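ok so I'm stuck.
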Amino acid sequence: MANSPTILSWARGHRDIGGVASQSFEGPGRRVSRLTRAAPPVDSSALLALARRLLYPRGMRHILIGIVAAALFSGCGAPKSVVQEQLESFADEQEGKERVIELRETDAARGLVIHCPLGVLCDEHYDYRHYSYDARGIYLSLSFEPVVVKDMTLESLRAHAQHVSYELKEVEGLEATGWRIGARSVVHRVGQPDFQVRFTGLQDGRLKGEIRTTLVELVGRQTADATCENPPQDAPMPDHCYASARANIPLRIVFDLPIQEGVLDCRDGQTPGCG
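replied:
not stuck anymore, here's the structure
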């Protein structure tokens, strides 16, 4: 919108004199000047409080809080109280709304890779077959009975699954300066009511499937403070370092990933997948 003559006249006639504002208003055939006390600077807490009152509809609340926090605390970590407000607002606004994460990789090294402890030969005689995927802001783990090492078929994977777990390292739409925000890790075990995992295809070395789950807790950890990143081993984590909020957000993880086959020998030294 173009600037009106009135706005431009006010801008030209406004100047700050030692904390006192001098304002000139132009009218037809006359000019009036007056001195008024300049407004004091607005502190961050007042600005955040104003933002909370204005952040409606509710669906925009956590977004605007994040924008205000980023502007106020650029270059340093946002206070825990601000992050706590973001987490609670996000959990409230997203309750019951399903989110979908789609995972697809073409590089086999970034797919479902065998994970094996050091000093162990992970073959069909070991205790389990463990696969992990760690990319795109999520850590995904699939565990099977070891028989699948020699019987890698879709039917075998379905019959011998043990558990599935995941951890979100980031949550889309939820950010805070100087903080790492994700969701608490969740484990789903075969035979439990919450085990809603389907393996839908195995072809050309790729496994397709779907996991239906729920985000139950949002968690944040401060990264801008060295005491939070490297806390003393014999002391609890300082309270200002973390924030959390209970949540009830349905999540569907759809994956189409390369899956590694064969035996992994971790008895001699460190190799990819060992540790």
